Amino acid sequence: MVEGSKVSGEIPESGDPTVSPDGQQSARAARVVVLGKDHDVVTNAARVGQLLSAMGITPDGNDRVSPPPRTLLTPRARTRIEVVEVSFRTAEVAAVIPYSTITQYTRDVPAGESKVARAGKPGRQVLTVRRRVEDGEVVSSRVIAREVTREPVNKLRQVGTYVPESRQDGTETGNASWYDHPGLTAASPWLPFGTEVRVENLDNGKVVTVVINDRGPFGGGIIDLSDQAFARLAPLGTGIIPVRISW
């Protein structure tokens, strides 16, 4: 957008700006907002575009003019005209590509334990970003091109499934926690899916039977109960309870 250095036809402090010197109501008042600055003008122009041209303001195809240039100016009302300078800029921005975590179940690690077999490493990429600028302020941006300069390396976590024969049938004592999961179900680090497990709260003797359909916990507990199952043994606010499980 090209803006003239001089704005003519400013409204005087007194007098009727809509009345020309010969007494004819031909002059029109307008408030033109350009780059956030107000200009009060009086003009004989009939349309918005003619007034802007007289002021030396030439919007380009990207700029936004409201109301549109062909709009007629109202003789007896001050028309507000807003011209927003719109431009587009492109820039290259370096960005990180996050890595994912892959879980691998293996008999090389004891059941209930986990280890990091490979550390994750983020990748790198260069983004070409197109930004929309209105009156000097960036209002939006979008990625129009992407170049990967280094692929990420995913983290590999191994979860143990090896179960000694002494634990394959029997009982185990430890802590139980709960998580949001449907039905009378539970997560075990190693018990096969579909196994029915009897869980006894060692504090009060209450018992519930659950079906294993998930893996966990991996922080030291022996079973992670669904919220419904845990609630049959103790209030959810208890968080962790000592239990004996049998299968």
Question: Short description, anyone?
Answer:
The protein has 247 residues and is mainly β. It is built from 2 helices and 16 strands.
Describe the protein in words.
By secondary structure, this protein is mainly β. It has 3 domains: about 1-85, Ubiquitin-like (UB roll) (Roll), CATH 3.10.20; about 90-160, Single Sheet (Resuscitation-promoting factor rpfb fold), CATH 2.20.230.10; about 165-245, RlpA-like domain (Barwin-like endoglucanases, Beta Barrel). The protein contains 2 helices and 16 strands. The strands form 4 sheets. A 6-stranded mixed beta barrel has the order 11-15-12-14-13-16. It has a 4-stranded mixed sheet with strand order 2-1-4-3, with helices on one face. It starts with about 25 loop residues before the first strand and ends with a strand. The model is unreliable at about 5-25 (pLDDT under 50).
Question: Fraction of residues in helices?
Answer: under 10%
**Unreliable parts:** 5-23
Number of helices: 2
Major sheet strand order: 11-15-12-14-13-16
Rounded to the nearest angstrom, the distance between the terminal CA atoms is 79 Å
H-E string: EEHEEEEEEEEEEEEEHE
Please give the number of β-strands.
16
Backbone shape: elongated
Task: Report the top-level CATH class of the largest domain.
Answer: Alpha Beta
Query: How does CATH name the architecture of the largest domain?
Result: Roll
Q: Give average pLDDT, whole number.
A: 87
- What's the domain count? 3
**How much beta, percentage-wise?**
over 45%
